[in-house]
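job 3f2a | input accepted
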Amino acid sequence: MRVVIAEDLALLRDGLVRLLTAHGCTVVEAVDNGPMLVNALVRHRPDVSVIDVRLPPGFTDEGLRAALEARRRVPGLPVLILSQYVEQLYARELLSDRSGGVGYLLKDRVGDVGRFVDAVRQVAAGGTAMDPEVLTLMAEGMSNLAIAARFQVTDKAIGKHTNNIFAKLGLPPSDDHNRRVMAVLAYLQAAPAPPK
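job 3f2a | predicted structure (196 res):
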């Protein structure tokens, strides 16, 4: 699997290169800013890219904007976005594009190597990898308002995020089924079994 990495922190960038290489990936390029990322993605057309949301020069959403630009040039380019904070709305446009694999994970998920590598492979295969926190809290019975309070974002932001989850899980509005319950069931079925 050919991978492009975009991360401005040298230690994390090198760590990602080593981690993915150790799991059978070929890192074709590792960059530290948005403009270089667009060029690398278009030139290499990797099987998947792992991209920090905030890259130089502005440290706002350059990584995401670079990924979107590259996907405009190469439709369906698989992209896994990493973020330091719970900022699901950053990835709204990316997640609304249903062509090619997409993912959005918090950076601390990289610490769970198995799950991180699985997410990279899932996105490379055309699937979706979403940070499980919102679904976990939904499974605990929390409302959008309570989840929003936990993450210190608006309930509207969580509502948009849950709608993206519904769309990615293929759960259209229905009078016959509760999409929230169906999403939680899908999450529970996909969750790995606890260690014995």
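job 3f2a | The mean pLDDT is 83.
job 3f2a | closed
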